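Regression test case RT-17, inverse folding.

Input:
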């Protein structure tokens, strides 16, 4: 994987990029030092913080060209996540499942970036279920379907991304908004296009209600649509590549970097026939 150049869109240019990245990494290293001391609580929230730190360090060392160091850190992030999910899974309820979709998505990306594609697919399967409020994947529907449609669209968007990575584009069930004038979603048989529309609608509802909706999530939707068109045999690779470049160039701050860059790396590796270097 080729390291990322300093994005032209980054506010403040290269000097600020280096300073901001160094500051973030210093914070993550201190967090790891503090949270790995004896006696710290072993909770999912604690694990998620550790995973975030190891994942961030991996991105930093990848950007520095230290591939082996980065891979070791991503392996650590994936291993911590796997242990946490396997521990909570036997007692996990449908109402709590969506609390773990962010952890499993981060673990999926960490596994993929460290070359563990089989493990990555396992985590993407977890993410797809958890973001729908399902535990086993065999339930008829979530116990509380509306609860998984958070007003920032993150659960629906996590599910869409995971399904695309798993190659599952049709024969799905999920929540969609059948009426453009209503915010009432219904659980129906649908496909990836219906789920993308649901994610987009949730983001719009979030903006309307005054919630913080990250531009990095909004900008992901055109890229996913272009990729789906390719996978369905009706789109041009050039359009998907253009959407990926646009997405990568939209990095404006560190929050964008840590959300966008892993997706760019993952998609390039997962779909090499589409996204050429």
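Golden output:
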């Amino acid at each position: 994987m080729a390291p990322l150049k300093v994005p032209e869109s980054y506010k403040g240019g290269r000097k600020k990029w280096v300073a901001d990245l160094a500051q973030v990494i210093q914070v993550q290293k201190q967090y790891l030092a503090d949270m790995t001391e004896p006696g710290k609580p072993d909770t999912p929230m604690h694990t998620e913080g550790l995973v975030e730190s190891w994942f961030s360090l991996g991105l930093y060392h990848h950007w520095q060209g230290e591939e082996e160091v980065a891979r070791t850190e991503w392996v650590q992030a994936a291993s911590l996540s796997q242990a946490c999910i396997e521990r909570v899974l036997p007692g996990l309820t449908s109402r709590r499942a969506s609390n773990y979709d962010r952890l499993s998505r981060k673990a999926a990306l960490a596994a993929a970036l460290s070359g563990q594609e089989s493990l990555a697919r396992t985590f993407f399967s977890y993410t797809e279920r958890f973001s729908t409020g399902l535990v086993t994947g065999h339930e008829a529907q979530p116990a509380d379907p509306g609860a998984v449609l958070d007003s920032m669209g993150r659960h629906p968007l996590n599910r869409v991304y995971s399904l695309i990575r798993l190659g599952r584009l049709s024969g799905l069930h999920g929540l969609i908004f059948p009426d453009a004038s209503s915010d009432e979603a219904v659980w129906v048989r649908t496909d990836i296009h219906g789920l993308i529309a649901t994610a987009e609608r949730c983001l719009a509802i979030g903006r309307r209600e005054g919630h913080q909706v990250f531009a990095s999530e909004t900008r992901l939707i055109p890229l996913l649509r272009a990729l789906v068109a390719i996978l369905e045999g009706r789109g041009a690779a050039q359009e998907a590549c253009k959407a990926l470049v646009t997405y990568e160039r939209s990095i404006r701050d560190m929050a964008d970097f840590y959300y966008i860059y892993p997706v760019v790396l993952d998609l390039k590796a997962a779909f090499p026939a589409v996204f050429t270097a």
